[in-house]
Amino acid sequence: MSSDRRTPAKPARGTRFRQWWARARSPGHERNTLELIGKSSLAATLSWFVGHDVLDGESPAFAPFSAVLVIQVTVYQSLLQSLRYVGAVCSGVAVQAVLALLTGPDLVTFVLVALITMAIGRWRRLAEQGSQVVTGAFFAFATYAAAGESTERLAQLGEIVLLVAIGCTIGVAVNVVLLPPMRYRGVEHGVRALAHALCHLLDDVRPALHEHDLSEERTRHWRSRVAQLQGLVDQARSALRTAVEARHLNPLRMLPSYRHPEFSGYRQVLDALERVTHQVASLTRTLEQWPGSEVGQECDAFLHDYAELLAALGTIAEQLSRLDEQQLPHQSRELCRAADAAQEKRRRLVDRAESTDLALGDPSRPYGILLAEGVRLMDEAQHTCNVLRHTVDRAGKHGRTPADTTAA
To answer: What is the topology classification, in CATH, of domain 185-404?
Structure first.
């Protein structure tokens, strides 16, 4: 049967690649991916050259494998993981060497090696590299069993440790020298994404309050969207941890001319936005449980005023979703003006609600709960604006731009 509907054509592979490449030309996930691929390939190649061509090792693959393993998103993580990895491999090789010398490379020795190295691998200080204790021990056992004399066997084990150390050294060196990663933009993007989601949710709730349309389907949808906000909070916090960590041991910080956009209010703004998500969750839960008996002119007026407050708060969230450190002085002034307008909406809501016969003090009725949540939302919005304004003032006091202020 014919149909006039047309299925949207998927972009051609060449088009998708060009779009991806265009994104990779600016800071973001795509560029970070290309950098990691390039640095990992270079580190692996250099490690293989040293292990195979220079040292003529029996197992040169240990070097490039180790180099790729320690290329991390920050210099600090590269150094930390390389130390853990070398320690894990050395532990595994040492256990295997001692037991093999005492009892020989037989099945009983292999069982003992497996038990001991697995126990060592559980040490929390080795973290995700704990499994490399067992891996190093098993490779060492195979090498030891295949070698001939005892001196040759010990030399082979020493070579494994040497190749691992060379690979880790080259991996860390490449990560330090070649485009050392500074992951600050991820924090900004995380805050923007969370504020953008909050803005859209508040914009969706507002017209429903104007229309007094609190249907079960609508409120359930709000609750579902609120539940998704925690994922955005977790992503933003992860980006913040990475950004702070990226400053440690990074040689770019030693350059006097290097100034990467950053401001000290990231953590406080994110804390405030996380509290806002909890309060919005409480607000939507109250609306979901709205009694059908709550009707009338005063009820409609209350919901209308509440919608106006949410609209003002949505404006603040919308401005936060466009946050740009380089424009922070101008944006902080806009946010303060938006906060003042929202405070006026809050005062109007409270004053008009108190002048009605609505049961604001009855915990079984929704009005007092909504008022409390509205006040808390306004407090957090005002706090966020104050944090940004303080960041701008502090930067100006020290003769810097907000972009030069380090993360708290």
So the answer is: Methane Monooxygenase Hydroxylase; Chain G, domain 1 (1.20.58)
